[in-house]
Amino acid sequence: MQLAQHLQTYFKVSKGFKPGGFAANNTVAQAQLKAFKPESLVSYELGFKSDPLPGKLRLNGAAFYYDYHNQQVVSSFLLNNYGPLGTYVNVPHSAIWGIELSAEAHPVSHIYINGNMGYERGSYTSFYALNTPAVNAYRVATGVYKAFYTDYRGSDLGIPKLTLSGSIAYRADLPYGLFTDLGVNGNYRDSQAMTIGGTGAYRLPPYFLMGTYATIGNKKQGWNATIYVTNLLDRHYSITSSSQSTTYQHVPGAPRFIGGRLSYGF
User: Among 30, 105, 129, 173, which residue has the fewest nearby CB atoms (within 10 Å)?
Assistant: First the structure.
């Protein structure tokens, strides 16, 4: 809907499905091959697109609500004398909601800025499953595996709540038909649960990363050369996790990397 010359709004409802199946990776017990049901999702989204300062500032935003039925997640079941094992299960009902904002700015000549922000929350509205942290704690205390089940109704899904990304670049034409593009970028991801209901040690910590690049090229001749650095601050961070029985491992992200690339079009 066009509310003003430089402001549009929209509302969208959509429905999607994900087929069921079974997972056979890292299979130890027959129960891990139990088929899981199809997943369905109804999505509601309300947003706007605007150019409050045409050519200088663009702002877009949206609020969303995802209504899941039989959401497919990795849970655990307890194999006696072995420990918790991963398996796919269906969450009868769950929901995710949040907002997304993005901005593009060109405040002065040669300077270009963009940024994105996402905030989301999710919860189980109906879910009963093995409490893996409780099983592991009991095993450490007693040396015996014992199943503990929890009603996770109302519990947080454990997804990262806040994500941020942005960049600032300097772009200019140079003598002899050359151009340059210099930039710095960064992104932040909030903490994330490693297991259903995970708290404390069962969460991946948040992280912030930076990168930079410098490009020079010639548009008419069709070539450009770039040198870039990812994870500029050489941060130690974890992008995901894996588990085996009572052991949980962080999967680390890449360290600082310096690289370059050449391209030529004809």
Answer: 30
Is-contact 152 124, C-beta < 8 A?
yes
| Positions in the chain whose pLDDT score sits under 50 | none
Domain that holds residue 257: 2-264
The domain total for the chain is: 1
Q: What is the pLDDT of residues 188-205, one digit of tens each?
A: 999 998 888 877 888 899
User: Which CATH number covers residue 217?
Assistant: 2.40.170.20
- CA distances in angstroms from 161 to 47, 99, 208, 224, 240, listed in the order given: 19, 10, 14, 38, 15
pLDDT in tens, 78-102: 888 778 887 888 999 999 999 999 9
Other beta carbons less than 10 A from residue 189's beta carbon: 20
Question: Whole-model pTM?
Answer: 0.84
